[in-house]
Amino acid sequence: MVDFVGDDLQGARFERVNLAGARFTEVDLTGAEIHGGELADFRIRGVDLRRVVLRGVALDGVEIHGEIGSLTVNGVDVGQFVSDELDRRYPERARMRPTDAAGFRDAWDVVERLWTGTVERARGLDPALLHASVDGEWSFIETLRHLVFATDSWIRRVILGDPSPWHPLDLPWDEMRDTEGIPRDRAARPSLDTVLALRRDRMATVREVVDGLTDASLDALTEPVEAPGWPDPRGYQVREVLLLILNEEWEHRLYAERDLTALAARP
């Protein structure tokens, strides 16, 4: 097996090459083209697919989970249809797109209530299963740890100005490169109660922020935090930061519910 690590292969040409089972991690394929390839059983995760064009392809049994905007299939833009269908299935989803301060407080009420039900459901499982992965995704405990990381990064660092808000159990997304000062202990196995204590503290912080919102403050820019870490030190609109947090909370709870169903079905 040949490994290419840190190599510059820009403009490389591969013809009649067998890459079955190959693994691509942190590769830049911007502008790349594939003609006459075989991608059956191909798995893509954490990849930017904006402006990708697929022509003359055979798609059957394909699953897409992610942020979907405009998506044209055989001349039909199905992106809005997907969004409308998700709103129909989950009536409270539309409340995750508030436009004023009162709407953000209402949205956070929904987040708190829904997560309370999900956590109670998780407590009904064998605690060992809460550390189990389903189809290579984060375990339930890891999902909670990631949401702590998201709150620390966007609320405590960006909005509240704490230059280093992270807890040792914070868990960044898998594709994030190691960053000074940010923990990423994938081997940690904290108990559910330990992680929930962190979650309660961080969710209370978000509650304080949304309770103090005004319609004017939503459009304000945050002060850049000039310290190592993430996100990058620049000003962010408060509205956009809070919408991002609502989206993280909503989507990861759905993933958690999906995986809890699979875990409950295990022998």
TrEMBL record:
Pfam families in UniProt: DinB_2, Pentapeptide
Superkingdom in the source lineage: Bacteria
Domain DinB-like: 112-255
The protein, known as: DinB family protein
Lineage: Bacteria, Bacillati, Actinomycetota, Actinomycetes, Micromonosporales
